[in-house]
Write the C-alpha cells for this entry.
Amino acid sequence: MTTLTLISSNKMFGGQHQRYRHFSSATQSEMTFAVYLPPQAEQQKVPLLYWLSGLTCNDENFSTKAGAQRLAAQYGFALVMPDTSPRGEMVADADSYDLGQGAGFYLNATQQPWAAHYRMYDYIVDELPSLLAKHFPLNGQAAIFGHSMGGHGALMIGLRNSERFSSISAFAPIVNPSKIPWGIKAFGTYLGDDRNSWTQYDSLQQLAHAKRKLPILIDQGDADSFYPEQLQPQKFVQSAVEHGFSVEFNLRPGYDHSYYFIASFIEPHFAFHAKHFGY
C-alpha cells in the first residue's frame, strides 16, 4: 500500500484540511495533494468533489482562495485538490508558464522527455481514487470540477469516465484544446504531431463518446482576457446540447479569470453537485 506522509493539518469549519505527500507509481515522482474532510466525516462516509486547478497552480491556490471548505462543511462533502503536474529536479520542465511543471494538462505524455513523469491522466483517474478510497471515509459518490486548464481536465475526465461521476462543472474552462494556442502548444509537445492522438484529451471531441450524459455547469467571466481566444466555452455548450447533454452556462458580466471570480460563484457549483448527488 502506498504510504501517505502528512505534511500539515488545519481545523477549518469543524473539519480538517490536510496536505499529503506520496510517491506516485503513475508519475514516478513525489506528488502532493490536499483533502478537506468535513465534520460529518467523523460520523459517516461522505461524497467527494475532485477539484482540478489551472496553469501555474498547485494544491494550495484553491485551498486558500476559493472559500470552498466552508461550503464543503455545510454540505458534508469531502474535497480533494491534487497538484497540476509532477514536480522535482528529475522531472522535465520548460521556461514558459504554460508548459512543464505546473502545466500537466491532465494527460499521459508520449513524447520525450515528458513521457517518464507526465502521466496526470492515470494519476487522477486511477491512482488517486484508489488512494482516497483506502485512506478516507468516502461513500463512493463523486463529482468533478475545475478551472481553466483544470476545467479542461474536469470536462475531459468526467466525459471519459462518466460512470464514476454524478456531475461536472467548470470555471472558464479550456474546452477545445486541439484548436487553441495553449492546447496546441501543450499537446504538440506532450503528445507529438499526430493530431488524431490529441482527440482523446479534447472535451469537445469526447462529447460523442461519453457513456452517460452527465449534467454540466460552466461559468465564464466576460472580462476574462483569455475568453475570446483560449477558452470559447460557447463552442462546447452548443455541441453538448446537440449531443443531448443538459448544460447550464452562465456568462458573468465584468468578471475575469482570477480566484476572485471563482470565489464569487463557488456556492452555485456546490449546490449544483449537491442536487445531482440527490441532496
